[in-house]
Amino acid sequence: MTDVILAGEPEARPRAQTEPEGGETPAFDVIELLFFAYRDFVRDPDEALDAYGFGRAHHRVLHFVDRNPGLRVTELLDILKITKQSLGRVLRELVDKGFVTQREGAADRRQRLLFVTERGDRLVKELHRLQTRRISRALGQCSAAERDAVRRFLFEIIDPQERAQVAELTGVEPPPARR
């Protein structure tokens, strides 16, 4: 028997109710907003990267190599929290296609220091422009105090043991806690 589908308004689906564990009610509003914000934050760069056959892993590598010229491969592994094998594939593609270059360390020739090439720099600037436009639009609606609250919130999501490294990498100190 064939299902008959009539055009019209879709049926309203009830929202799933998740029982709180440990007495803590899930923060679905924030969880879902983060999912959707991240989806849209990476959409424009994803489309730009697709033209090169690249994905989000390539974006992350390009971003941190650009922001930290001379970054050691071991440091990049620590930042991204990925395996050497995962990074190896992505890095090889970026090097082979002329977006990143590797140089030997001056003191230790076994070190591989990473730099974006001119071609990599052009792509990174385009990716930054796309994401900056979206962030500027959102933060343009916020007061200075609200921007501090956004930064504070994002730092609080980061694992406490990682915050010092993130502050050092970004050059952004966590905003002082509200009193």
Automatic annotation (TrEMBL):
Entries under PROSITE patterns matching the protein: HTH_MARR_1, HTH_MARR_2
SUPFAM superfamilies registered for this protein in UniProt: Winged helix' DNA-binding domain (SSF46785)
Region of interest (Disordered), residue spans: 1-24
Keyword Flavoprotein in annotation: no
Gene Ontology terms for molecular function: DNA binding; DNA-binding transcription factor activity
Regions crossing the membrane: none
Highest taxon in the source lineage: Bacteria
Residue ranges annotated for the HTH marR-type domain, each copy included: 24-159
A Pfam family the protein falls into: MarR_2
GO terms, biological process: response to stress
Keywords: DNA-binding, Transcription, Transcription regulation
Name of the protein this chain belongs to: MarR family transcriptional regulator
Lineage summary: Bacteria, Pseudomonadati, Pseudomonadota, Alphaproteobacteria, Hyphomicrobiales
